[in-house]
Amino acid sequence: MALALSQPRRLSVFGWLRVAVRLSAMLLLLLACLPAYYIVGLLSRHNPVPRLFLAGIGWIAGMRLRSQGEKAHRGAFLLANHVSWLDIPALAATTGSAFIAHDGLASMPLLKWLCQMNDTVFVARHDRKSVTRQVEDVRTAIRDTGALTIFPEGTTSDGTGLLPFKSSLLSALEPLPPGIAVQPVLLDFGPEAADIAWVGEEHGLDNFLRLLARRRPIALTVHFLPVLHGAELANRKTMAQAAREAILRRLVASSRT
């Protein structure tokens, strides 16, 4: 699948106004959530404030969610396609999930601080010496938050298809810990997926501002697909293949309706 190369788009005066209003609302939300985060943290090990904050960020950005299918019970490892930064607020809002991220994000202090609040597990893709520690971090996060999401494509696609799934990212599930449900999830932005997606040469900040400048809401359907079972759970490669096939089938079916 060829991904289009995006060029920066000029925002209109009204677009910049929407950006200013939404950024201000996001900052106010952050300032409101910070005291709540530290207070709740003193009282409970499971702190829902970061996921509520992310859900609010998505709503402020204009994202309007609906979900289909049955979410897995507590102890879910979610394998989702990756289209936009909005994927994270969407899954936080619908599942309360924490996330797995590559360790490059940890080099940015502000982003690392926000990610750590949400129990993000940082993985070093090329550091074989840390695999054992990363596996334990992943399993701890699932126990503590109830759900953990990974994007097996390893990067964003244009929302109209899927990139290959990297089974190496599922090393923490081999062997599969008892009580963990592995569930594929399709994030479906519908006919506007290619316009929402962050792909090509578009800078991340340009994509962020462009979506905040939109006048129309961003419709996103989160499809919870059947959990993997039987031979699909044999190892990380079978899990990656089964999840990709399930997501691709639903994506094709959705594009035809």
Task: Describe this protein's structure.
It contains eight helices and seven strands, in the order ααββαβαβαββααβα. It has 257 residues and is of the alpha/beta class. It has a single domain, classed as Glycerol-3-phosphate (1)-acyltransferase, CATH 3.40.1130. It has a seven-stranded mixed sheet with strand order 1-7-6-2-5-3-4, with helices on both faces. Helix 4 (109-117) links the parallel strand 3 (98-102) and strand 4 (121-123). The longest helix is centred in the N-terminal third of the chain and has 31 residues, at 13-43. Mean pLDDT is 86; it is low at 1-6.
The first-level CATH class name: Alpha Beta
User: What is the alpha-carbon Rg in Å?
Assistant: 18 Å
The count of strands amounts to: 7
Architecture (CATH level 2) name: 3-Layer(aba) Sandwich
The helix-strand sequence is HHEEHEHEHEEHHEH
Distance between the termini: 22 Å
Separate helix tally = 8
Average pLDDT, to the nearest integer? 86
**Helical percent range?**
40-55%
Order of strands, widest sheet: 1-7-6-2-5-3-4
Parts with pLDDT < 50 across at least 5 consecutive residues: 1-6
Number of domains: 1
What percent strand? 5-15%
Structural class: alpha/beta
Overall body shape: globular
CATH topology: Glycerol-3-phosphate (1)-acyltransferase
Query: How can the largest sheet be summarized?
Result: 7 strands, mixed
